[in-house]
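FAQ: What does the model actually see?

It sees only this:
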Amino acid sequence: MGEMNLGLAHVATVSFLASRAAPSLQFFFALGGGIALARSAARQGARAGYGTSLAAMLQTVAVMGPARINAPLTQAITAPMMGRLEARGARAATEFAACLALRLVHYAVLLAAFILVILGGLDEFTGSYETLTGWLGIVPQGAAAALAVTAAGQALWAVFFSAVQVAAYRRALANWPAVTPLDEGLAAAAADPVAIAGPERGSGRFDPRAIVVAAFLATALLLVSTSWLLLLGVTAWLVPAWLLSRPDHDAVPLGLLLAGLLAFAALSGGLLSGAGLELTLRRALRAVLLVAVATWMRAAAGPGGLRETFRRALHRLRALPAVKEGAALMEGLDSGPRLIAAARAAAGRFSDVELKPAQLADTVTAWVAAESADYRAGARAPVTRLCLKAPDGLLVALTLLPVLTLVGA
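And it is asked to produce this:
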């Protein structure tokens, strides 16, 4: 597996980060990462491919937090499978059907989460649909019609994206460009942690493991109820936790954007469905708090802290398929200037390319091949030694205090 899969994991990380940061066209920014994962699975097997996918996805979460992860997640789920099918000589129709099936399952899970968590339930979803379409007089009404129309729209998008994936992956894997890696001296300079990577920022005050546990507990509480007491209790915990954790603010702009989008969806959906202003406001506040907790986790733990937490978690779960491979690859990935340099190299390749599908696909493939071949692991960036202390236990314990608001409810 070694250096080749490590380079492909690095490329997938760069591509997925660009996809999450882009204001639009996220699918196309993530396509290069999907090609890298398909190449990994085609050469080393499905287990290695999904290990590469796992390492790249966790790396993007460590760098940016969990916001806007769905666009690259679909590529991460489907690309290794498609790469393995291609290596076995599967027909394009088979690859398309497999990709489409996984993509539809992913879409169904996202739709269910949106309906239940953001809108508040099937009744609100149906009410919004009927308000928007009932005046036409020709569109079927009711819960079944609302789900069917929405599913049909998602299926059309799934067909388009799956077709593009199959075409891009098959073209890339069948015509993989020959590249000459950097010589050992240049590779060593590129991987020099002193000249390039530098230390990663860890958590400022709390142990990152405690931060992750507290964030998961707060998220679980928010999913249980939208009572004012619970929402205010989580807010009363989150505000001092944010102030005391010495966070960085790199992930805050993206978090604010996502919080605004989800709050608007909750408000518009609730008002259109006739759910009532008070209930709609509670659901909108819950959506904002869910994003705020996720953003706090990244800001408080820092990329180094999250990477170390993920690494230790993967080590404990290494008996599971692909987890051992993912853990090994995370050791060599870099989240600092080398990602920025790779992104600039990609931008440079596209500066003179005509906007034609074949040329764009070949340019993406050429960048994936060159960047992955040249990547070498540097020394592991130092992180603060993890050590659980009393403040960490207090942070987690205080997260559970809002549970008291549910007693007797």
